[in-house]
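pinning this so it doesn't scroll away 📌
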Amino acid sequence: MGQTRQTARDEGVAASSANGGAADPFADLHPPLTATQAVVEADRCLYCYEAPCIAACPTGIDIPTFIHQIRTGNLVGSAETILEANIMGGTCARACPTEILCEQACVLNAREREPVEIGRLQRHAVDHLLAANGPHPFTRAPETGKRIAVVGAGPAGLAFAHEAARFGHSVTVYDARPKPGGLNEYGLAAYKMVNDFAQQEVRFILGIGGIELRLGMGLGKELKLADLRAEYDAVFIGVGLTEPVPLGIPGEDAPAVEDAIDFIARLRQAEPKSSLALKGDVIVIGGGNTAIDAAVQARKLGAEMVHLVYRRGPEHMGATHWEQDLARLNGVIFRHWARPVAIADRGDVAEVTFERTRLADGRLAGTGEHFTLRAAHVLKAVGQRLAPEGLEELRREGGKLWVDDRYRTSLPGVYAGGDCIARTVDLTVQAVEDGKQAARSADAFLKEKES
């Protein structure tokens, strides 16, 4: 074993890169473990006392326990251990950056061995429970008569709704999109969320009962925060960051230019996906995981050359090193220390002019040296920000919603969590934890009002 051991996850990536991604551009990036593979991998866990992997998980999953349950053949119990802490354990097993969280904390790293593949073991257990389609593993407390509105059917909102329903409250979840799931449905690359898993997980979450979905209703449009506060006993805001950050340069509205998040959403909703293809070259501007998702997906769809251009160095990128390696294995060309300054429409292609950059006294500065790239598609992936509609009454901090340590906003009875709040990192697993903890805070608030 030791350092020469190649994980099954890396083997899957290598296979994808070996056939250029052309065989199936939407194939599962990390094929699930077989029963035998899962037991063998579970046997590698040392079941540490005060395990560092638990502390590294934002939702605090009891990782040694669920792995031990897999080893002993108790897959349902393992899944329940996971879902007790993280009701979206299925998505997080697929999309969570385990390489910088639980797996990085695995003590086997200190022994110069590969860490236990915690993410794939988590998927093995949760997928087994969901496939069995049995009764929901959690039950609701007796009805409290309290009604809570949730705005946003993404990870934070759904996690809040499930936890609040467990407490016996009646929850109505609103979302502006035609489908629930948030970024799990619209923002993750198709090769990470195959077989309509996002909707399967939503159906599972709703299976606890006491949760109603109302779609096509957006805050600031069909919904007003003042009306929700008047109608419901509490309100949770989990709207995420839905407004793409512009480049702020001439020509970014050229026909060949698209926001990367819209590109991914369009691919995720396309039917049939087998008809999709890209021709010509692609330029992706940005350095986060969305940029990587867009670049890799473009390569898998047949783009001839994909250039990912980032204004700083690789060590500054928001994307993890594993995600960066994934892009390289799929033939993505990285160009660091360059920022776009103008885009010109040249008919069938766009011509992007970049200025080379450097750090001067710790700040990014242009060098005055320029180069140009041409591509049939230019994808902007420089981040998203909070859309202001309907949130004018709430206090902001750093462009996001302010909350205290109990997820309370500046308005009584209004809570918030996920990517839209200032005190969190933009990770699905953190959004789930935000929703769970905010629901507990709201439940305490409602009980205090009763006493």
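📌 and the second one:
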Amino acid sequence: MRKHWKYILAITIIVVSAVGGIIVYKQTRAAENSELYKVKRGKFEAVLSCKGEINGIKATEIRVPKIIGDRDLELWELTILDLVQDGKSVKKGDFVVQLDASKIMASMRQEMQNLEKEVADLNNVKIDSTVTLSNLREEIKNARLDLEYNKIDLEQSKFESEAYQRKTQMAYQKAENNIAKKERDYLLEKNKLKVRVGRTAGWVERRQKKIAKYQEAMSLTRITAPEDGIVIFGKSWEGKKFSKDDAVPTYEFAPAIATLPDMSKVLSEIYVKEIDIAKIKTGDSVRVTFDALENVTIMGSIKNIARVGEDHKDFDMKAFKVIIELDKTDEGLKPAMSSNNEIIIARLENALLLPVTAVFKNNGNPFVYLKKQDEVIQQPIITGPENEEFVVIEEGIEEGDIIVLEPPVEKVLVTKN
């Protein structure tokens, strides 16, 4: 019986060993047959790609004439009745935009009605002043005659009693006081009427000046090009290009209706998402290409990054405006042309590179599967910048190391502590 159990035990050990060997063999073959990558060095470049728009660094702005934006006129916005085609070449003095003058005309008519009323008021005030002052002067004249009569009585009273003399003297003094009072009243009334006439005349003058401003504004609703160039229409605060029937704000700091860019020096305006803005800085090199121009590539650099993000229709988060200045121009470049901008955020000449797919993470810590002879080791690494294909390895592996690109079977894996 004991001998029988020995046979069973021996057979069991043989079977288990055989099965284990087969499993290990298959797992080892699986590791050997996995796709491998030999670590090597090479040039590396990481870029941030953004769409943009081309414009001249300098541009002549075409704005609503200042007189139309005068606060006195209260013309806060005017409608565009007609305009030239966006991107059209124009000469100095050529038509660009026609603004609706109906609001100006209506306001001017109202001012003219107000002016008629105020002119009539001014005339009435002048007539009243003339009549009032004439009456006062007549009263002063009569008071002086009374004084003369009292003077005669006073001179004749020397032949009369002392009481009568005293009475005539008091009458004379009273007549003198009356003249002084009437002269004072005359001066007060004259000054009061002068102020009234001046105030009413001032209203009339202001109305006349305002009407003159309306007339000047009317003549400037037809806006022409201040110089030769290509017309590029501006955008409203909502980011929409001005077009026919749009309302254009007239105040001083409103957006320009259009510009005439100088394309001898060119910039590209782009917007960068807030999650990427920390990757770039002023001075970074930029490679710029254009959908409309084949085989044209122009280098540039970041000149300005907005300090504050803003809402943008093409992003679901805040975006920052970035200005890129191109190193040169090209005769084919036109204002508002689309540009493809590759901001070079990293460039290395001799970097240790691995495919992005070869790097794995454990609790946020990167590692690779390093093959050493018949073993596969989980090797921790320190990574640098990366692009769509490769990641730079700073520590953990060396040039020539063999990396397994797929996770091996656990039986073959050896974890490095």
